[in-house]
Specification:
Shape: globular
Number of domains: 1
Largest sheet: 3 strands, mixed
Structural class: alpha/beta
CATH class: Alpha Beta
Bound molecules: glycine
Number of helices: 5
Helix content: 10-25%
Number of strands: 15
CATH architecture: 5-stranded Propeller
Order of helices and strands: EHEEEHEEEHEEEEEEHEHE
Strand order of the largest sheet: 2-1-15
Length: 251
């Protein structure tokens, strides 16, 4: 089902202190990040989504990456228990918005789970078992949301969605490393060239796909697969180890 709502949160005053291993982290501009975020919200709105703003948070540097705070499926939300201590505390703002809309449940210790690990595709979920999400997290998600969950185990990565996202029409975009994983069986897979791997984190709204600017080959592949592509400038998001999906919860 196509999403109708997007939960977002403007980058807070401490954004430049985000968790990041990006080599250009030290050059991140809060002003530019806010401009890029505003354009993102405007684009989602133009695509027909109701954009719901969680009040800005100026305490937790990574708070604009709302995707990690909750997994929504089947009309319910699991509020995530973040793996990184420095991100625990972002969730109440997002939970307050979600609980006005649907039943919520908080993931509990020893679970760690972050929405950036969870690909939604045709009523099922494909979750990374990663540096941020553990088996207990996946189990709690599966039980509360009452959905089938396939997993991809890779304890070296932060979030699966940096490598695998669902475009729609049974088509996934996945980097070479995951393209033949059994969890993706039954989907047609587009594999971007290695220099375009960052572009594998896409955000689909109907037949339109938001993709990071600067990755022309990956964009062309998605266009040739029958989608409209909107190219988004996300340099300041990328410098905080974020990407397009990280900035919203769609439902
Ligand atoms: N900067 C996003 C994260 O590390 O969680």
């Amino acid at each position: 089902m196509d999403p109708k709502h997007a939960i977002v949160r403007t980058p807070g005053n401490l954004y430049t202190s985000c968790l990041s291993e990006h080599p250009l982290h030290h050059t991140v501009s809060l002003k530019k990040a806010r401009e890029q975020h505003a354009k993102y919200c405007e684009t989602l709105s133009e695509l027909g989504l109701e954009v719901i703003h969680v009040p800005r948070d100026d305490v937790f540097p990574d708070s604009c990456f709302v995707e990690d705070n909750a997994v929504v499926e089947n009309g319910k939300a699991l509020i995530c228990r973040m793996a990184k201590e420095s991100r625990r505390g972002e969730q109440p703002g997002v939970a307050a918005v979600l609980e006005g809309i649907m039943p919520i449940k908080w993931a509990e210790d020893p679970a760690t789970i972050e929405g950036g690990d969870v690909v939604h595709a045709k009523g099922k979920l494909i979750s990374g078992l990663s540096l941020r999400t553990n088996l207990e997290g996946v189990t709690q998600m599966k039980e509360w949301l009452d959905v089938p969950v396939a997993t991809i185990f890779d304890p070296t990565i932060m979030h699966l969605k940096s490598y695998v996202t669902y475009l729609g029409k049974d088509i996934m975009i996945a980097t070479e490393k995951y393209a033949n994983h059994p969890a993706l069986e039954g989907f047609n897979i587009l594999i971007p060239p290695s220099e375009d791997e960052y572009a594998a984190d896409t955000l689909s709204v109907g037949d339109t796909v938001l993709m990071a600017a600067g990755y022309d080959t990956a964009q062309l592949m998605v266009k040739e697969a029958g989608f409209d592509v909107i190219s988004m400038e996300v340099s300041e998001i990328q410098k905080c180890d974020g990407a397009l999906t990280c900035l919203s919860i769609l439902f």
